[in-house]
Amino acid sequence: MYIMRKNSALMKNRSKNMIALVLLVIAVLALAFVCLFIGSSHMSFAECIGALQKKGSPAQVRIIWNIRIPRVLAAIIAGAGLSISGLIMQTNLNNPMASPSTLGVSNAAVFGANLSIIAFAGGFLDTGNHLSGYTVGANPYATSFMAFIFATISILLILGLCRIRAFQPGVVVLAGIAVGSVWTAATTILQFYATDVGLSAAVIWTFGDLGRATYRTDFIMAAVVLAGLAYFASMSWRFNALLSGDAAAKSMGVAVDRLRFVSMLLASVITAVCVSFLGIIGFVGIICPHVTKRLLGQDHRVSIPASALSGSILLLLADTASRSLGNGSALPVGAITSLLGAPFFLAIIFSRKGEHD
């Protein structure tokens, strides 16, 4: 009788999780469709439909196909990537405050982008303080590549240092804070010597902006995110075992140190790719995993796809808000996610405090 009840409960739980995943997929598709009709150009619904069918004016077709669709795809892909990266970081480090940028990825990417913009495009080593010279010399792909290179250096440096202490979670977090502060200090020194044009361009780059997405950048992000998602999904039971502690996971045959190294490396690479193309987009990797685990439980077979979908939903909502509130121009989506994330972050802190009390 007990076994029958247990099996019935498992079936109900699986059905609930499947329904939740289906609803999340529907929500992503519905929001993606709605996002195509919102923007600063104030195109009507009929004009947007016509542009989707490539029957509108050339400007309208260009807005839909060259600006809005790449932007929507970037929101879906980057939201999913940042969310699953945050989930994997939280699981590996057993720290609910861990984020995709725990290994100093964002700090290093900002330094790399600043170096590219200030030193080689719009600053003292090339075009001086002339805006026209900056527009000629600036290369967004070179900036993204430099940001990715330094983010990768930071990842490898911290993971290399942590191998000395067998990837103890506390050591990883502290190493990330220390190395991240070094990148921040280097960025500050670089900006001190920048010209006005170079400095403003560097600061603008740090704003999380989906408007710089193109089909090419979307394809690159999608390839990395899908590869990471496939790997994490295949390791779901190992992540579930890790929730019980290192000793329990090892007793089940899980190579804990190798799992931490590979999964944290891949999660950080996903973050590095998204940040290098879109700038800093905060809190997606903290909010979505927490909401997913609170509603659907800790099972990574469910939480990994659910976190990816919820990340896409959050970034689509944030992008819609940024274009609706911009009064003719889109606000940085990173600012919107931070405005949403800060109260949520405080709620997590105080709710956990209440639990201990």
- Category from helices, strands and their pairing: mainly alpha
Tally of DSSP helical segments: 15
Radius of gyration: 22 Å
Termini gap: 38 Å
Compressed to H and E, one letter per element, the order equals HHHHHHHHHHHHHHH
- What level of helicity do the residues show? over 70%
Number of strands: 0
Shape: globular
Q: What report would you give on this structure?
A:
By secondary structure, this protein is mainly alpha-helical. It has 15 helices and no strands.
Overview features:
single chain, 357 residues, mainly alpha
TL;DR of this structure?
By secondary structure, the protein is an all-alpha fold. It has helices at 2-35, 45-52, 58-93, 105-121, 131-137, 140-163, 169-192, 196-206, 215-234, 236-242, 246-251, 256-278, 284-296, 300-325, 333-356. Helix 4 (105-121) runs antiparallel to helix 8 (196-206).
What are the SSEs and their pairings?
Blueprint: H1 2-35, H2 45-52, H3 58-93, H4 105-121, H5 131-137, H6 140-163, H7 169-192, H8 196-206, H9 215-234, H10 236-242, H11 246-251, H12 256-278, H13 284-296, H14 300-325, H15 333-356
